[in-house]
Amino acid sequence: MASVTLKGNPVPLEGELPKVGDKAPDFKVAKQDLGEVSLKDFTGKVKILVAVPSLDTSVCAIETKKFNEKVAKETEIVTLIVSGDLPFAMKRFCSTEGIDSPSLVTGSQYKDFSFSKNYGTHIAGGPLAGLSARAVFVVDKSDTIRYVELVPEIGSEPNYDTILAEARKLI
Q: Who contacts 136 (Cβ-Cβ below 8 Å, separation ≥6)?
């Protein structure tokens, strides 16, 4: 079990973080229209799986906007932002921020925590218990994990350049 920090305070995580070379665990999240999406829905694409606590926080909002800008023109890479937000809130956020790229999908784990639990990012205690720590997984077209970044401080952003470089290598 890994841990991260929130404003310097330790935050315990539940589950095991997958390693590079592991098969990506399956999951189910709710889309903005309340339909479900899972890993298999992105078969044949390079996937950037982004775990964030909530789009209602400034760092998560910035991260989502940056990924949208960076992958908007990518046709063989899909970015899935997974948070604890309700699908309605995600839809409002994307509408307000002008996020409408088919290369970026938002998914809510408000009903099913299989994403954060299977990817080892589920926050097990503290003020954000039940949400996900900030992490990014790059998954190839065959659903093998090729890059893992668990951001040590929940309030920090990931390394966008490295993540995109790793994803582009897989196209």
A: 48, 49, 50, 51, 147, 148, 149, 151, 158, 163
Q: Which residues of 46-69 are buried (b: 16+ CB within 10 A; e: fewer)?
A: bbbbbbbbbbebebbbebbbebbe
CA 27, 153, 146 angle in degrees (round to 5)?
A: 45
Would you list the DSSP string of 109-160? Answer: -SS--HHHHHTT-EE-SSTTTTSB--EEEEE-TTSBEEEEEE-SBTTS---H
- The reply to whether 60 belongs to the active site is yes
Phi/psi class of residue 130: alpha, beta or left (left: φ > 0; alpha: ψ in -120 to 50)? left
Catalytic hit among 60, 99, 145, 163: 60
Provide the residue-wise pLDDT of the chain in tens; the chain has 171 residues.
Answer: 688 999 999 999 998 999 999 999 999 999 999 999 999 999 999 999 999 999 999 999 999 999 999 888 888 999 999 999 999 999 999 999 999 888 999 999 999 999 999 999 999 999 999 999 999 999 999 999 999 999 999 999 999 999 999 999 999
Largest alpha-carbon pair distance within the chain? 40
Number of residues that make up the chain: 171
pTM higher than 0.85, yes or no? yes
